[in-house]
What does this fold into?
Amino acid sequence: MGMCFSRGDRSPPKRRGSRRVTNPAADGGAGSNRWARIRSSRKEENLIHERALAAAILFQQQLQNGGGTAPFDRSASLRYPNGNSKRNQALPRSSSSRARSLTDPLLQPHQLVNQDIKLDNLETNHFVLVHGGGFGAWCWYKTIALLEEGGYKVTAVDLTGSGIHSFDTNNIKSLSQYVKPLTELMEKLNDKEKVILVGHDFGGTCISYAMELFPTKVSKAIFLAAAMLTSGQSALDIFSDKVESNELMRQAQVFLYANGSDQPPTAIDFDKSILRDLLFNQSPTKDVALASVSMRPIPFLPVLEKLSLSETNHGSVRRFYIETLEDNAIPISVQENMINKSPPEHVFRLKGADHSPFFSKPQALHKHLVEISRIP
It folds into this structure.
């Protein structure tokens, strides 16, 4: 999470430009255009009425001609093919007039990128999901379900003092202590086993720490609206340049002083009344409610800690960045600044995504994760 403290002036050397990829499924277009959806819904309703009228006429004719019951299908909904149909066969649209989510339009099964994925051809099918500051493994529940349905192996960790991890956040003294659940997971991997690390928010700092320690065990690193540091930087250095003008962030931060008000802060909490506007401005209400009762304070000292990253270790891991274009916590300008200073291999963009794309754009996020896993 962006923190409102001092400014960082380090300017690492520029690298080659990055390739940006926009997710077509997340674009506005006809599929997500509100008025097109309303017109489509009205057409579907008219179709239902026409079918009902035709069925009623047929039923009346049957009664007049012989009194028997007519063998017509009472359902006004189109049927999907049975399980014996070819997997790639296009499925008909439902005649339901129920409104769909405007933030993440429903994809039909044949549109999901899970179709016909050859997992055996991938370097690894194991995703390790690392949450951001204040979050926990719980925030990935939609992503976990989508990836596992596609045959991927998924591990979501609770960092120290996060999620259901019982440690007191105020007592976390270092970044190594905070990321210990992640490093313990990496240590247990076989020497030839690799994973795809995904870091959200402050989780970007955490996966960079793991990349430096276990470069041969990381196939790819994906930074999702995350702190992507260079050597000698802290998360504070990344965010302090822009957070001064982020009024929402300044209002939302609540500093905790477990050692007394005359001592430095021990953790940072959030004003729950501002969370929606800051982190979940495009997310469903149910997910905002989940977050409001699940989020925990962020340990203060790990945010200040500067990373020591080498080209031989951290620099040898392939990096990818996923931008969130409607992000009020880490604005797109801050994300672009990190990308320009240390260009990753590819940059993907999630239109309509707030700071919590696993809530606001779960299917579009899933599509990008699968795409990245398939890049040779």
Notes: The mean pLDDT is 79.
